[in-house]
Amino acid sequence: MLIDNGESDAQLALAAARAGADVVRDMYGKSLARFDKSAGDFATAADLAAEQAIVGVLREARPDDAVTGEESGSTGAAAARRRWLVDPLCGTLNYAVRNMLVGVNVALRTDDGITAAATADPFSGEVFWTDGRRALVRNDGGDEELTPSPESQLVDVNLDPPFPNAPGFRAVRLLADPGFVRRFRPRVVSTTLAVAWVAAGRRAGYVTDGDLRDSVHFSAGIALCRAAGCTVTGIHGGPLHTGAGGLIVAADPETHAALLETVGNQTRRQA
Predict the structure, then answer these.
(1) Judging by DSSP bridges, how do beta strands 83-90 and 73-75 pair with one another?
(2) 21 pLDDT exceeds 80?
(3) Is residue 133 within 8 Å of 145, Cβ to Cβ?
């Protein structure tokens, strides 16, 4: 795929995510080699092939930029002013058992933060993308502005480790909190495609623990939600990437306040 070097970073992110999504879709359902990474975690041949396709698009258009890929690690200067963050297949276990809930994430981190990002859904054909100012979804060649909404009351909770804020906070306890279940309907889809869904109005919120700075998994979704006007903070309501870490993304301030109160209930009980 040839990309004009004058093309915007956002369009490049979109093209790269789409290239990865094409690979993921084409390899779906095949018998794929698995490569163990850590306890309970692995990559498949599709992860590696999708990352290769994404990095190839980025390298052709921006050969001087640094890249951090989930599978291939970091290349380029450690202190590079421009670094692409690549998650070629978010939801590998879903994919390996032929569950189509997966996403492909590409984001550009510069001195000004995440300035371009895209999350592709390989099976719907949608690509959620942002240039740092607008948040849109491209489908069938057209773009539509993303509009967050709390109407669904659906909140995704990430239950995958690590859990750096335990025992004070554990995401799994949200599912048993009376206040949470009275107001929201929990979901666990195990892919950061769900973060993009908050920006698109398909989810009311998303909660996860962890240090998300320069995350290949979360950077694209966070950028989409910020550009769409969602409320985005750390797990205890502070600025993102400070303090205890973690993430609360909500479609509106009211939903965010309710999620923050529920998280705070855990901390108070553990004190």
Answers:
(1) unpaired
(2) yes
(3) no
